[in-house]
Specification:
Layout (H helix, E strand, L loop, with lengths): L35 H11 L2 H12 L4 H11 L3 H8 L1 H5 L3 H4 L1 H4 L3 H35 L8 H19 L1 H29 L11 H20 L4 H5 L8 H26 L8 H4 L8 H30 L6 H22 L3 H29 L6 H5 L15 H16 L9 H5 L6 H19 L22 H5 L11
Helix pairs in contact: 1-10, 1-13, 1-15, 2-13, 3-11, 3-13, 4-13, 4-17, 8-9, 8-15, 8-16, 8-17, 9-15, 9-16, 10-13, 10-15, 11-17, 15-16, 17-19, 17-21, 19-21
């Protein structure tokens, strides 16, 4: 059975063809699909090796088994927020980076939406390419295939090409292939689970620590786990083709569960594996608990799962780069960012002393930026009652209702800056300890402080900053001017408002 284009799909979004749409609004005539398709998209991207590694990191930190398992579940509850962000896609018919113009302004979004998005995207592309390359080299060695001097760079190049080609094709191809990737990877992890559970040391214990030190480790582990769901501020990218009147509840649930289920199950598997093997380099030590025939299967899973995760990352990074002002197509910019990420992955892999240390430190610090960003986005959906006019969001001129003050919306920018600064000061990583964290005995509160402060401050400023300090100008206000109509409200035959610039 071959993936095919679903009935009703527009010519711009067909399986096996390069998607022609970029960050612009998707008109109602081209909307298609069902929310259930989102589950497989997010499942295929998150049935991945990274969660297995993160679970092992919790054990390496010195956390007790049961606490590491609890942290794996609690930290991944942030997937609920990712699901909530996805509901803005059908409402606006636009990707997340375009919708973020509403919360940061046309110019402000180039820094706090598009700029950070490109950095975040390339960061995760590097991680995925690095994991896949290491596994591919190990797989070749397992079959006795030696590499000539510099051969590892050729492997890196092949992995890079495979990592980004599906993202180039775009939305329809991603949706069509997602269930197949999900099924193949899930089978491997189910078999792996049997071996891991059989070898687990259920009596595993760690040396007791002083209470303050122990809770510092708990919060550090939470920050590492939370960094993954908090990095996905792109839910609208994959939901934007859905009809505007689609069920918001289904969009949110299918998105959230598609990420939460594999993240928790695979992360927990990594935790349990950490009681039986050294998780510093699991692709080598896994051979201690699995039969010889499964080792190449495990390595192949790492390669495939890293590539499938990169499919979504590369797709959204292309949107972010376009929003920066790149005057090339989404497909072309995906190739460009992919080349940059692949080259950077080579530097990380072959020219830095410890990839795992660099990974842990990066994940620990990344949450200080991711948390406030997705929190502000989530609060904006609530404040606007999910009313986004995709056509107005496409307008980047000073006449745009989202130009605000010189192209910047102070509420979003101030909330983002303050929340990120406080989150950084509250972080505790292997490379840096913030003064707030130090004063609290080393507790890392960045994964909590950043989102809570960012979202709360944004809500306060949104309600007291021009234009929304005037209740009549708020989206959905009865006295607001119905100058434009979102497709969501058009589908429901209800009038809505266009926002009025200051």
């Amino acid at each position: 059975m071959t993936p095919t284009t679903p009935p009703g799909a527009p010519a711009a979004d067909r399986v096996g063809h390069v998607e022609t749409h970029g960050i612009e609004h998707i008109p109602a005539s081209e909307r298609h699909g069902r929310p259930s398709g989102l589950f497989w998209v997010w499942m295929s991207a998150n049935v991945g090796y990274l969660y297995f590694v993160v679970g092992g990191v919790l054990v390496l930190l010195g956390l007790p088994l049961w606490q590491a398992l609890v942290i794996t579940v609690v930290g991944n509850l942030w997937w609920a927020l990712v699901g909530w962000l996805a509901v803005s896609g059908p409402a606006a018919g636009a990707p997340s980076v375009t919708i973020m113009r509403a919360m940061f302004g046309i110019r402000g979004n180039k820094v706090f939406g598009a700029g950070l998005g490109v950095a975040i995207g390339i960061f995760y592309e590097i991680i995925n390419v690095a994991f896949a390359t290491l596994a591919a080299i190990a797989l070749l060695a397992h079959f006795g295939i030696g590499l000539p001097p510099g051969g590892e760079w050729a492997v890196l190049a092949v992995v890079g090409i495979l990592s980004f080609i599906i993202g180039v094709y775009g939305h329809a191809t991603i949706l069509a292939l997602a269930p197949w990737f999900s099924a193949a990877l899930a089978v491997v992890f189910v078999v792996l689970a049997g071996f891991v559970l059989g070898a687990a040391d259920w009596s595993y214990e760690v040396a007791p620590l002083p209470v303050a030190d122990h809770w510092a480790l708990v919060m550090l582990g939470f920050a590492i786990v939370a960094s993954s769901p908090l990095s996905w501020g792109t839910g609208a990218d994959y939901a934007r083709y859905l009809p505007a009147d689609v069920s918001k509840r289904k969009v949110a649930w299918y998105t959230a569960l598609g990420g939460f289920i594999p993240a928790v199950l695979i992360g927990a598997l990594g935790v349990v594996a950490g009681t039986a093997i050294d998780m510093t380099d699991p692709q080598l030590t896994i051979g201690e608990i699995v039969p010889a025939w499964f080792t190449p299967v495990f390595l192949g899973m790492i390669v495939l799962s890293s590539i499938t995760n990169n499919v979504l990352v590369a797709y959204s990074t292309g949107f972010y780069a376009q929003a920066l002002g790149a005057r090339i197509s989404r497909a072309a910019v995906t190739v460009v960012t992919g080349v940059v990420a692949t080259a950077a992955a080579g530097w990380v892999l072959f020219l830095t002393p410890s990839f795992l240390d660099a990974l842990s430190a990066s994940l620990e610090l990344s949450v200080t930026v991711f948390g406030p960003l997705v929190s502000i986005y989530a609060v904006d959906i609530v404040l606007r009652r999910n009313r986004y006019d995709g056509r107005s969001l496409d307008d980047t001129t000073p006449a745009s209702p989202f130009w605000y003050r010189g192209g910047v919306f102070p509420a979003g920018v101030v909330a983002m800056v303050v929340a990120v600064v406080v989150a950084v000061l509250s972080a505790n990583t292997t490379l840096y300890v913030g003064p707030i964290s130090g004063a609290l005995g080393g507790a890392d509160l960045s994964a909590i402080v950043g989102p809570v402060l960012g979202g709360g401050l944004y809500a306060l400023l949104w309600l007291t900053t021009t234009p929304y300090r005037d209740p009549a100008r708020r989206p959905g206000a009865a006295s607001a001017h119905p100058a434009a109509e979102t497709e969501t409200d058009a589908a429901a035959s209800a009038p809505t408002t266009q926002e009025v610039p200051a």
